[in-house]
Amino acid sequence: MADKKCIYVLDTNVLMHDPTAIYRFEEHDVFLPMTVLEELDAGKKGTSEVARNARQVSRFINELIETHGSSNIEHGLKLLRPKELQLRKNGQIGRLLFQTSAQMPKGTQLKVMPDNQILASILVLREQNPDRNVVLVSKDINLRIKASIFGVTAEDYENDRALDDFSLLYTGLDELPADFWAKHSRNLRSWSDRGHSNYEVRPRKGEDWQPNQFLYLPGDDELELRVVSVANEVATLQVVEDYSGGNHSVWGVHARNREQNFALNALMDPEIDFVTLLGTAGTGKTLLALAAGLAQVMDQQRYREIIVTRATVSVGEDIGFLPGTEEEKMTPWMGAFTDNLEVLSEPQDGGSWGRAATNDLLASRIKIRSMNFMRGRTFLGRYVIIDEAQNLSPKQMKTLLTRAGPGTKMICLGNVEQIDTPYLTETTSGLTYAVDRFKHWQHSAHITLRRGERSRLAHFASENL
């Protein structure tokens, strides 16, 4: 009877993406070709996230060799870390296998390239283990295509995938049915507190609400609500602030649609420490975040200053190649913020003198920082905006969010349709990961902005080009 255990062959990019990948295949065996070890050695130098991951993989492998002895390499090393040896003695454990010979499969003529050498080692491995299912795991699409041509099963590495289908991602808002009040008339309780109308209902089947989720009732009885809390099968709903007109604005900015109004409510709430705004270009993510930040730093003095940062991956050059200070180096990547700042810093009167004074005042309270130097920092009482967050890996997102000290609010902005980082997808992006993991936390909020608010030209271009 054929052995049901598979042999998973890991590509270098998988290990550089997730150093713990060798431990993620449960009872199955993991095979590392010699080419992968050579590429890890070549990529270990430097201070980048990829280099750190390469060094960590080498430490894991060395740890396994020291624990189980180098004499067992030929037969494979048990994929157990020293702390787990006593916990899982009897369970089925996979082994870490290495390529111990450099022979080519019969009848194949492959150019000597790292990808082809990995593919050749898989073909030899398959010949040596005819009763085992050999699977290549790689984040390189072209290598997976080559493997398929040779009849080798190939898969993407999906252990860090936040969810199976991006369309299932939490949107942060939900439409209520027309008969919502009729359904809850028996157990409804309402009261007014500090100028806000509150309602207490018992959620029914299908009403699986999260804290700070926004609900709306369209039509003639239009109403916008926020889920304040969900506990003991009782949900407390509160009518949101209306920033869409009149004198009720945020730093002169009015909400142009329902989603923007929800976003401003989340951004202006001091009880919400973490806000994620997801949306395509022109939906107002940056403008709303910056306006709310200025209102709370300059007017309410809730935070000491605004810190703006973003991933600089799209240009492809290191920040050190640009002249000037850290802030000057970041200026080319901060065009989106300077464009929005021009709109927000336009004084009602005072002419060019008033404009210059306003710009100087705002510049003193807005700091632009590079993501390269975030490790080890702690932000106290800051309003932090992370732009282009879709280009962050889950590990990088964790590194940034753990910088928050007491009194700090973190805002993540991004558009998952514009991911520029290799090997990241809609479902593995750090922004998607954060939205999914934080949706149950009572001090976080998320809004997916759908409607663009730039101009009729931009709207027509996005629809027709």
The CATH topology of the largest domain corresponds to: Rossmann fold
Q: Any guess at the CATH architecture of the largest domain? A: 3-Layer(aba) Sandwich
The DSSP helix count reads 14
Q: DSSP strand (E) fraction?
A: 15-25%
| Overall mean pLDDT | 85
Low-pLDDT stretches are 85-90
How many strands, what sense, and barrel or not for the largest sheet? 6 strands, mixed
Question: Secondary-structure map with pairings?
Answer:
Elements: E1 6-10, H1 12-17, E2 29-32, H2 34-42, H3 49-68, E3 77-78, E4 95-98, H4 114-128, E5 133-137, H5 141-149, E6 153-155, E7 173-175, H6 180-183, E8 189-193, E9 196-201, E10 214-217, E11 223-231, E12 234-239, H7 258-268, E13 274-279, H8 285-299, E14 305-310, H9 326-330, H10 335-344, H11 351-365, E15 366-368, E16 382-387, H12 394-401, E17 409-414, H13 430-438, E18 444-449, H14 456-464
Parallel strand pairs: 1-2, 1-5, 2-4, 5-6, 7-10, 13-17, 13-18, 14-15, 14-16, 16-17
Antiparallel strand pairs: 3-4, 8-9, 9-12, 10-11, 11-12
Question: Features of this protein?
Answer:
single chain; 465 residues; alpha/beta; Rossmann fold; 2 domains; six-stranded mixed β-sheet; 14 helices; 31% helix
Give a written overview of the molecule.
- A hairpin with a 2-residue loop joins β11 and β12.
- This protein is of the alpha/beta class and 465 residues long.
- The protein is built from 14 helices and 18 strands.
- α2 packs antiparallel against α4 and α12 packs across α13.
- The chain starts with 5 loop residues before the first strand and ends with a helix.
- The chain folds into two domains: 150 residues, Rossmann fold, CATH 3.40.50.1010; 299 residues, P-loop containing nucleotide triphosphate hydrolases (Rossmann fold), CATH 3.40.50.
- The strands form three sheets. It has a six-stranded mixed sheet with strand order 3-4-2-1-5-6. A six-stranded mixed sheet has the order 7-10-11-12-9-8, with helices on one face. Strands 15-14-16-17-13-18 form a six-stranded parallel sheet, with helices on both faces.
- It is globular, with a radius of gyration of 27 Å.
